[in-house]
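Usage

Read records sequentially. Each one opens with the input sequence:
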Amino acid sequence: MEMHLFGRLVPAEVARRRLLAAVRPIERAERVPVERAFGRIASRAVRSPAAVPAFARAHWDGYAVRSRDTRGARAGGPARLHLVGELFAEQRFARRLREGEAVAVATGAAMPPGSDAVAIFEDARRRGDYVLVPRPIRVGERVSPAGDDFPRGSLLIPSGEAVSPAAAGAAAACGLRSVEVLAQPVVTVLPNGNELLALGSSPRRGKIFESNNVSVAAVIEAAGGIPKLERPLPDDPRVLERAVRTALRRSDLVLTTGGSSVGERDHIPGILARLGSPLFHGIAVRPGKPTVAVRAGRTLVIGLPGHPASCLLNMYWLVLPVLRRLAGRPGPGWSEGVRVLGRDAARPDPALSTVVPLAIRGGRAYPTFRGSSALTSLRGASAFALVPPGRGGARAGMRIRTCELDPPLGAPRAN
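and closes with the structure output:
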């Protein structure tokens, strides 16, 4: 069994900086129905083509009146107005309101022409076909004027921002049926290993079901990408190279899982070196040291380790910020904080940083790592810490800098 050497190990932060410097944010745009725009990144500013509301509306159930007809009204001498109709939200009054008249209006109804205020039901008394208003009603009282929510030309969604529920609602309120957003980056995932079985296959002795596809796809989707998952590939350099070349033609980012280390059947580093400009092979970190990356034209190819926990941790601390930049999203995908360790987290290592998955409970951080091949190492983990090389490690009771994953990858912020 032959082995070959890693390239020069690069520090964890250097590896991440090189990837972020090399990634090219998506430039393609597409139009999507406004009801499916939530969470997408606006590729251009969206402005209102019309005022909302387009007309003055009653802001409260009551009586539309001419405010001047209520001047001098008081409890002992109320204004007496002739009730000449009623309006619900979908209706319009056919004529202009005349002196001494009132119209019953429901909330949201268009104000009758000539009216300028609403006397709410609680402040008025009905007497047959007349309404008694016991106090003066101010101009504009209980009325939403045209453009009260936003006038024509208002900025509804800034370019480069994610469409919020309120922004999507505002676009719909002014009649926009679709908005222009950045296309979602396509990320192809290529697992490789002779021992891997595709889901749905019959179990076989010596074989394991491929699981990295599922966890990697979840991170891709959370970052705004579209995962394209391939079936497991054999440890055959010709098959692997053909698959990577095909993926490069149809993807914005290519991820491989497995085959990135220094063993006889680890073909990925050599294949990627032929296809692009090397960024690194080997990161001074545990777990996840056997990681390789190249830039092939405008597209990055990142070879991740095959051990499930190592692969998923690398997706969090290394690939997630790359995915977000590719998709035009701000930030790395986590918020930094400081927590007290609930128990020992990492043995000291003078040469390697240590990535520690963490569960946050009761304001403290508890390490969950059990081993590189155990997916249960990340069960319950909503954060991680990157412990630098040194002699101290990370011990119970220490304050440690944490990276707490944004939802949906992480839990809502704990206190």
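Summary fields computed downstream for this record:
- The mean pLDDT is 91.
- The chain has four domains: 12-28+184-326, 30-52+148-182, 57-144, 334-405.
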